[in-house]
Structure formats: structure tokens, C-alpha cells
Amino acid sequence: MAGLTAAAWVARHGGRAVVVERAGTLGGSAALAGFVWTAPTLDVLRAVNPRGDSTLAAALVEGFPAGTEWIRSLGVECRPTVTVLRFGRGHQVDTNHYIGACAELLHAHGAEVLTGTQTRSLLLADGAVRGAECVLADGSTRRIEARWTLLATGGFQADPDLRAEHIHPRARAIELRSNPYSMGAGLRLGRSAGGTFGKDGAGFYGHLIPAGVALDNPAHFTDVTLYYSERCLLFNLGGERFVDETVGDHLTTLALLEQPEARGLLVADAAAYRSWMKGQYVEGIPAVNTFEICRRRGARAAVANDVDEFELIPEEWGYPGAKIRDAINALNLAARGGDALSPPREFDRRPLDEPPFYVIEAAPAITFTFGGLLIDRHARVRARDGDVVPGLLAAGADAGGLYHGAYAGGLAPALVFGLAAARTALAAEATR
User: Fold this and answer.
1) Model confidence at 430: pLDDT above 80
2) Are residues 256 and 377 in the same domain?
3) Distance (Å, rounded) from C-alpha 423 to C-alpha 51?
4) In the listed set 331, 365, 399, which residue is the last one of a domain according to the structure?
5) What is the domain count for the chain?
6) Tens digits of residue pLDDT in 370-416
7) Which residue of 121, 190, 358, 418 has the smallest Cβ count within 10 Å?
């Protein structure tokens, strides 16, 4: 999203661009997404993402309207505004149409698009980045000289070692809910040129999936994602709640990674099953029966006719069923009486007391990383001395600093900072 956006904008506005894509096709993880959205105001974004860079947050919110207008300018529909994660606003977009439209524009303006190509190293001269050396699909090597180089490889979520180093040791083994090519190439290249990584402990965007079910087909990513967890209770291996589930599945995912063995028991009652496990998570997404799909794919899943049946959780699952039963009863009693809940359930305090109960063992899966090369609002990569690395830009999940343990859209930053990178490059050329 970021790289194609930047290249297409440059091409339309009279500049020259070469797109280097490691995969055999264009699009990356954007091809698997369908909504462009973010917070409607800076105040809202700061409230949900207080540890993120405020300058980048302001650039994201301010640049979002122009970003959606750019999408429309390519003949791609942005459908009517919908609410996302209670606080966000955005549009359903056919991202594959957008990817194709960018590719057509690049072709029409004579820009090169090299697929199946790996970037071996950046070209450096007098402390500035001046292009890259690439290995083409046929194995030959090519030097591409450029005044500006944009890193937009999609993050490092596909590299287990980098996940373990920068996220959590248990992140090494979590499932990948993303394209398989985002292996940290942008991060490695940027650091080799003097770029700075940040921020430590920022985390990642992901979702809960059924534990033990491999994400071996991107077509199944949505069907087995447990978006509805914010309407449920989640227990760790000790039989304890450890997070406010109602803040959102993406945040519950981060919290579960910190728990023993990074797995937990997700419990829904009949009301949650009817309205959420079988319903739409976001307007415009077809409803599916997530519970039945997960069970058919081999997830640890069960239906309990009443709370007492939690005592019968299979021993090999490893959970104290009687303790979970008592915890559910205690929570429901407190919720009915208006007493404090610990952890709280800020956005949904209703008791979960309508049988039957639907139980799935859940685990975290990663979609993209929050840590990356620190940038300024113009997408210029920051150097270790606080200045910028001349000639080097980063956008999308290769850029860090915007989000820290929180999230307000993935495609929007790629779009906004991809356009920022393009404007930076052309503005610099105009002053030469």
C-alpha cells in the first residue's frame, strides 16, 4: 500500500519511480485487507494511543482526507463511512482494485515494476542513500540509482527471530496473519544506513485465533479470527481473567502473548453467540459462524449447557474448570449488582449468563508490527544522532513510532505516509 501509493503519486505528478517487489505479485498484506480507517480527530487518536508519537499522529489524522481523495481519484470507490472499533471512522475499499489501479497508472507513465526482486543493499555516497542494489528474478544483479529511496516492505512480522527480539520471546512461535514476505528487509536496510529503530515494546497489531489451527491459507484469515472476543471472557491457564476484554480483540491479543504459553480459554454465552459469533464484526463484512468454522478446522472447542459443566473441561486442555466456573458465577453476580469488576469490562458490563456457553481455546496471531524505523511527518528516516538519513524514506509498517500498544488502522498510515514520502521526494526535486 505504502510503496505503490508513493510510486503512483510520483508518476502521476511527473516524477520517475521504480518499484521493487520481493513477491511475485503486487500488494503485500494490503491485498488481504478491506477497510481504510483511522481516528476522526487527533484528540481521539491521542486518547486511544497515548504513547505514540504525537507529531506522527497529527500527520495521520490531517492527511487522511487527502488520502481517501487520492484513492477516489484512481476510480476506486470508498464506500460510505462506517464506525470501526467504536472510535474509528473509515471506508470499505476494494484494495485489490486500488492495487491494480496503481499498477495501471505506473505502466501508463512508463515506470518500472520489478517483481520477484530482492534488495541486497542500499547504495551509500557521502553519508546519503542513493539507491539500492537488487537481485532480479533471473538471479542477475542491478544497481538502481535514485535521489530518494523509500523502504516499504511491510514490517518484520514474518521473521521469527525479529519477533522474538523486538516483541516478546513467545512471539517467535505465534501464527502469521499476513503476507509471508514481510521479513524485516526494510528494517535491516534502514539500520545499515544509520536509521533508528523504535519504539521498544511498541507491540504489534494482530487478532486472536483458535489455538493449534494453522493459518495456512489467507482466504481463511477472516473466518477463523475471533473478533468477537470483546463480548466474551478470556481465562489464562491459571483460570484467571487478566485483561479487560471489551477494549478490543487486538489489545486482548497483546495481553494474551504475555500469559503462560500464550494461550487462553475464550468463553461466550448464547447472547454473544447470536449477535457476534454468527454476526457482522464490521458493517460490510459478510456474517459467518466463526465457532462452527473453528471447530471444523480442529480447534479445541466445546459447548457447555450450563456453568456447572465447566468443571468437565478435559484435563489435557490444562485449565482448572471448577475455578473458571466459580469466576464466571462471581462476575455475573457482580455485574448484576453493579459492583466493580476486576479486571473491569469498561464497554460491556452485562453478565454472561445465558446458556449454552461456547468455548474456544485462543492464541495470538500477528498481522503487522508497530516497531520500525523512526520517521518524521515527511516520512524521512531519523538517524541515530536525531537528524535524518539523507535520501532515505520509510512508510507503512516499516515506519515506527506512530503506534505503541494501540492501533487505529493499518492501511491509513501506509496511505498517508506513502503520500508524504512521495511529496517529500518531489518537493526536493523541485528545489534542485
Assistant:
1) no
2) no
3) 27
4) 365
5) 2
6) 999 999 999 999 998 889 999 999 999 999 999 999 999 999 999 99
7) 121
DSSP single-letter state for residue 359: E
Shared domain check, 186 and 85 = yes
Domain match, 192 and 211 both: no
Sequence-ordered list of residues with C-beta below 8 angstroms from that of 189, at least 6 positions apart, any chain: 119, 121, 122, 132, 151
Give percent above pLDDT 70 in the chain.
Answer: 97
Same domain, 233 and 257: yes
Q: What is the pLDDT of residue 386?
A: 85
What digits encode the pLDDT tens for the residues 14-63?
999 999 999 999 999 999 899 999 999 999 999 999 999 999 999 999 99
Q: Are residues 360 and 402 in the same domain?
A: no
Nearest alpha-carbon partner for 90 in 154, 11, 36, 33: 36
- Which cell is 105 given? 497508472
CA dihedral 207, 211, 213, 218 (to 10 degrees): 10
Strands (E), 166-210: 175-176, 197-198, 204-210
CA distance 330 to 352: 11
Last residue within a domain, chosen from 365, 390, 415:
365
Cell of 149: 529511496
Question: Exposed (0-12), middle (13-18) or buried (19+): which is 329, by Cβ within 10 Å?
Answer: middle
- pLDDT for the residue 200: 86
Question: What would the DSSP string read from start to end of 361-399?
Answer: EEEEEEEEES-EEEB-TT-EEEBTTSSEEEEEEE-GGGE
Q: Which CATH number does the domain housing residue 101 bear?
A: 3.50.50.60
Q: What is the mean pLDDT of the chain?
A: 95
C-alpha–C-alpha distance, residues 396 and 393, integer Å: 11
Model confidence at 431: pLDDT above 60: no
Instruction: Using alpha carbons, list the distances in angstroms from residue 394 to 66, 255, 398.
Output: 19, 28, 6
Rounded Cα gap, residues 169 and 24, in angstroms = 31
